[in-house]
Design brief:
41% of the residues lie in helices and 0% in strands. By secondary structure, it is mainly alpha-helical. The protein has a domain at 42-93.
């Protein structure tokens, strides 16, 4: 087996040191001094974030609907259409 040299063993000694700055080559513009990285969000993502915020602000329970169903259950007039329920379950599979 033969192992070829892959570089200096002492390369880690330069960790943390900055490399010398090279002047721009002719025809190249120098980098701006105060250049900042940036992120742009797509319109779809912005709409999704607004929808998520609206959904999280909406109440989880419609109190008047719950009260109506409770009253119908207590009076014995609440019935579930099992065929419609089964069809809705199948539609979501």
């Amino acid at each position: 087996m033969r192992i070829n040299s892959t570089g200096s063993v002492h390369a880690s000694a330069n960790v943390g040191q900055s490399a010398p700055v090279q002047p721009p080559r002719s025809g190249q513009e120098p980098a701006p001094a105060h250049r900042r990285d940036g992120v742009e969000l797509s319109n779809d993502l912005k709409r999704m974030r607004r929808a998520q915020a609206a959904a999280s602000d909406a109440p989880d329970v419609r109190a008047e609907r719950v009260a109506e169903i409770k009253a119908r259950i207590q009076s014995g007039t609440y019935h579930v259409d099992t065929d419609a329920l089964a069809q809705k379950l199948l539609d979501h599979m």
